[in-house]
């Protein structure tokens, strides 16, 4: 053994191996983490910088520390901000209420068809997001399959409409993001140790008590993950509002994309999306601190 | 004492029977009916897309009214050059970005599972932020970067964006599959004289392959469907979702529903194939 370590070559070799082991994780994670650094974190810095500039597309933009972009953004578009938060919250609430019993049923009574049932819930994801929303426009249109028929039978007044109302937008968002809620709920419910439930039953706990004292608390991590995964995209969504919402249901996402892509008012647009990001990130951060990121990632 | 216990036990037991009955009704009837209603509701737009891809409403736009069954638009799927070009772009972006994201994400996952290193927690937190951040902010901030440096927006910027939103998803998916991985198999290979390269390709890779495939499929699905981020970084380049969005104000030609139906079918086939494979494996294992 001593002889073994004593030879210089072996020692160098040993050191090189150790160094390689030390450096290996950095080499392995370098491409991915550099990509996120360059195209995810750095852009956030530049967005912050653009949000403090003034100018226009023709003459170029200059850094002027123009904080007024932020007050302008808030005073001009606070209505859309608040509306986005309200629509996002209602839609998220709907997805939770609708998908909890569904996830519960699959997890506890799905039997050998669990995977197939899960696939059915995921099917909407196989249809392009924009097309899904256009299909709802089709379904809900004033003379479409549903309203047209009901009006034909005089069950609804002729001027009744769903499109271009807040109901249509919220329903669209709830539909599009429902699987984001249902999946983490299912994973959490599925994970619950059945012997714990049995134990509660053996101790003569009523079905209601089993649910409220055992199943519900154990499924809470899934509920939290689902809330996060649904609420964030729901607030930032602009496809549903654009297709189903008409002119009175404009959300903050619509304004941001309009300012960026049609008005080329980059500073104001950056200020708007920075506010949105800050608001959501602070929320996410508190959430992640309270629950741990791993907890949420498990349900992605 | 014993009397008291007996009474305590006997009272709930007497109540148990009707309660069980009620519970049975609930789980046997109410819940399944409700669940199937939700599932049907989830299927409605898909059904509309498929059915209306057969509606004989002329080449200009799909009509809300049913005008008869036809398969014309399946035969003339590529009759709209712009639509075909956008679909081609979507496929190119999806394939290229999936390959890059899968390679990078897998390596990253290996680092996360195998090693303790400085910066590990930070990189996990960045991944989490990347997944949790609203898509619109990802797109908008990337556009800010490109605008600042005067980078022209085209297929390349779209691919950059898609790798950016996919790499963390792949890493997390692969990591989940790697966590239960038995490291001693690798040790054994090394003891038998295999070098690192051979060990990876002959031992590690075949074992983690299902995880990599799952990550790649997820990346491909996310990429081909993405609208919100792509819309910001595409410039004048069109992908399939962008093209559909663009024409939706004027009216969508039936081929859009045909394309949508075909994408749906491919996805469905892959998923069903996966379930069947897993079943077979479970039976064999």
Q: Secondary-structure blueprint of this entry?
A:
The complex is a heterodimer of chains A (300) and B (285).
Chain A: H1 2-6, H2 8-50, E1 53-56, E2 60-63, H3 68-109, H4 114-122, H5 129-140, H6 145-152, H7 166-191, H8 194-202, H9 207-236, H10 239-244, H11 252-261, H12 266-291, H13 293-297
Helix pairs in contact in A: 2-12, 3-7, 3-9, 3-12, 7-9, 8-9, 9-12, 11-12
Chain B: H1 2-52, H2 72-75, H3 81-114, H4 120-132, H5 135-148, H6 155-178, H7 184-191, H8 196-225, H9 228-233, H10 240-248, H11 254-284
How would you describe this structure to a colleague?
The complex is a heterodimer of chains A (300) and B (285). With 300 residues, chain A is an all-alpha fold. Chain A has 13 helices and two strands. Chain A has a two-stranded antiparallel sheet. In chain A, a hairpin with a 3-residue loop joins strand 1 (53-56) and strand 2. The radius of gyration of chain A is 26 Å and the shape is flat. The model of chain A has no long low-confidence stretch (mean pLDDT 89). Chain B is globular. Chains A and B meet through helix 2, helix 3, helix 4, helix 5 and helix 7 of A and helix 1, helix 3, helix 4, helix 5 and helix 6 of B.
